[in-house]
Design a protein that fits this description.
Elements (H helix, E strand, L loop, with lengths): L2 H8 L10 E4 L1 E2 L8 H24 L7 E4 H8 L1 H4 L1 E2 L13 E3 L4 E4 L4 H10 L8 H9 L3 H10 L4 E3 L3 H5 L2 H7 L5 E4 L25 E5 L4 H11 L3 E6 L7 H7 L4 E4 L6 H8 L4 E4 L13 H7 L4 E6 L14 H7 L2 H5 L12 H24 L3 E6 H10 L9 E2 L7 E6 L2 E6 L28
Parallel strand pairs: 1-3, 2-15, 9-10, 9-12, 10-11, 12-13, 13-14
Antiparallel strand pairs: 4-17, 5-6, 6-7, 8-14, 16-17
Helix pairs in contact: 1-2, 2-3, 2-16, 5-7, 10-16, 16-17
Length: 458
């Protein structure tokens, strides 16, 4: 089974729809030892097909619009955070303490882009807040990789030991991940069929998510990619953040297209959240499993108040197994699951050519939401979907076989970049790779400053 067929099947899609999809292959677009290009193409293709399917449903069309997936557009989008320029300035992707470190017996990788994660890392290592890179390196050099992983985790920080594919396969978390489907899907309630307002079939562009309200409680990077895609397709996406946890400015600029951004203290302003929830169609969360439950944001609690919701969740390691409660990011999942070892050379770890687990999972999450909305329009039910970066990694390493399709060489991202003026300045950005006949070619609005909107629907 090809990657796109597998992804579409995992979403519960009708295999007959796949005849509406065509691909433009560009050799070397996402070059790696592992089949990253096939994964990326499949994730975007499945998302575009789900969007086209919902558009046809709402416009009363018997035939789903044609979908075109171009490897060039996909590669540019999978590098969106690297292709971004803000008034000509390139963003910094990783902070100085987010990197690989040698240990007494191997390697670890840390993630310390956010100030609170940096503070926890240094605290777990017993180092002062102004510790140098050299001091951190010396501390890691005196620990085994697993000792470092356990110590930093115990201190609330993010450090993962480099594992080979064989070592990861022997881990209990790997077994838990492999036992789950790529996309977990469930009909959670018996709510009546969703009445979607019809779309004018002659409208240009055709926006399958128009009129739908999405509460976005996600952070880097898969969740924001998913909600950015829903915004592209016409949804009113309101991102909510705690006032004391600002998003990194460049990260916000990259993933904020089409959205509004507000701050809300869920601990003290529950009334405002309940007002938003009362007319929301979709809730997307991207925090550690269980982290938001105390605010009434578990799927069960959300469905109890609004039975017809679509609830979408994404996490690093999955909501199961011994690592269910751990924080994680794409770079760390690559290290734990053997990807960094596979992509390394000369005894040093490597990385995928893009944060493909984040981006791929993000497009699959958006696709799962779109398919859930289509299914609701036929037979109702509150719908719950869940994905994990580690499960996407398992698909990449164990489920996708490289294809030998020929195509023109990839000549770089320039053909799939655009410039937009907005409140954050002049932004050079990657155009959306999700494309179907009659659909949108770009976002309707540029990103706004973080937290600059009110916590209310338009």
């Amino acid at each position: 089974m090809t990657a796109i067929k597998f992804a579409w099947s995992a979403l519960g899609g009708d295999p007959a729809r796949l005849t509406r999809l065509t691909t433009v292959v560009r050799e070397g677009a996402l070059q790696a030892r592992l089949p990253v290009q096939e994964l990326a193409r499949a994730c975007v293709g499945a998302c575009a097909l789900a969007a086209a399917e919902l558009a046809a449903r709402r416009a009363g069309r018997a035939e789903v619009p044609g979908v075109r997936v171009d490897d060039g557009a996909v590669a540019a989008a999978f590098h969106s955070e690297r292709n971004l320029l803000v008034d000509g300035r390139a963003p910094v992707s990783f902070a100085p303490l987010s990197r690989f470190w040698r240990t007494a017996d191997g390697w670890v990788r840390t993630h310390a882009n956010y100030p609170h994660h940096r503070a926890r890392l240094l605290g777990a290592l017993g180092l002062p807040a102004d510790a140098s890179v050299e001091a951190v390196a010396a501390r890691f050099a005196g620990l085994s990789a697993l000792e470092a992983e356990d110590a930093v985790h115990a201190g609330g920080g993010l450090t993962v030991a480099l594992r080979t594919p064989k070592e990861w396969q022997a881990h209990e978390q790997a077994a838990e991940v492999a036992a789950r489907p790529l996309v977990e899907r469930e009909r959670a309630t018996a709510a009546p069929a969703r009445a979607l307002a019809p779309l004018d079939p002659s409208a240009a562009p055709l926006l399958p998510a128009a009129g739908l309200r999405v509460l976005d409680l996600t952070r880097v990077l898969a969740g924001p990619v998913a909600t950015r895609t829903l915004a592209l397709l016409g949804a009113d996406v309101l991102r909510l953040d705690a006032p004391w946890l600002p998003e990194l400015p460049d990260q916000h600029a990259d993933t904020g297209f089409g959205k509004r951004s507000a701050t809300l203290d869920l601990g003290t302003d529950r009334d405002t959240f309940e007002e938003l929830l009362a007319s929301a169609d979709v809730v997307v969360t991207g925090y550690r499993p269980g982290a938001l439950d105390r605010f009434g944001l578990s799927p069960e609690a959300l469905f109890a108040r609004r039975p017809g919701l679509v609830v979408a969740q994404v996490s690093a390691w999955g909501a199961y197994g011994p690592w269910a409660g751990r924080r994680g990011f794409d770079s760390l999942v690559q290290v734990a699951t053997g990807i960094a070892a596979t992509e390394g050379s000369a005894g040093e770890p490597g990385a995928l050519p893009a944060q493909a687990l984040d981006h791929g999972t993000g497009y699959l999450l958006a696709a799962a939401v779109l398919r859930a909305l289509t299914e609701q329009s036929y037979d109702g039910g509150g719908r719950w979907v869940r994905l994990a970066l580690a499960r996407t990694a398992h698909w990449l390493t164990d489920g996708i076989r490289p294809t030998a399709a020929a195509g023109a060489p990839y000549a770089g991202p320039d053909a799939w970049l655009a410039e937009t003026d907005g409140p954050l300045g002049r932004l050079r950005h990657a155009l959306p790779p999700v494309s179907f006949a009659g659909g949108p070619a770009d976002w309707a609005r540029p990103p706004v400053p973080w937290g600059s909107d009110g916590a209310r629907w338009r």
